[in-house]
Design goal:
Helix 2 packs antiparallel against helix 3. The termini are far apart. Helix content is about 45%, strand content about 0%.
């Protein structure tokens, strides 16, 4: 993705994300959940369900880097690109 191997790992990741977003933009593809038409969605509940936290048995998602529900929640927020209002949650 064009990331300089001399960069810190977190910086390499960000360069890769930026490159992928630019590529999607060139193809005319959406880059955010809002652009996909996803509006009021309860990201916190979804993150908790994905890791099993919602059922009281949390198992992190991912094998290379374990992701807990808080990590998934931050990812959902970052790709939504609008303020997330948790009061929209009905659960």
């Amino acid at each position: 993705m064009g990331a300089d191997p001399q960069l810190e790992p977190q910086q390499q990741i960000q360069v890769g994300i930026d490159s992928l977003e630019a590529f999607f933009l060139q193809l005319g593809l959406p880059n955010t959940l809002c652009e996909l038409g996803i509006e009021a969605f309860c990201f916190k509940n979804a993150a908790q369900i994905c890791t099993g936290y919602g059922w009281g048995q949390e198992h992190p998602s991912g094998t290379i880097q374990p992701l807990y529900w808080q990590d998934l929640y931050k990812i959902y927020q970052s790709v939504y690109r609008r303020p997330v209002l948790e009061e929209t949650c009905s659960a």
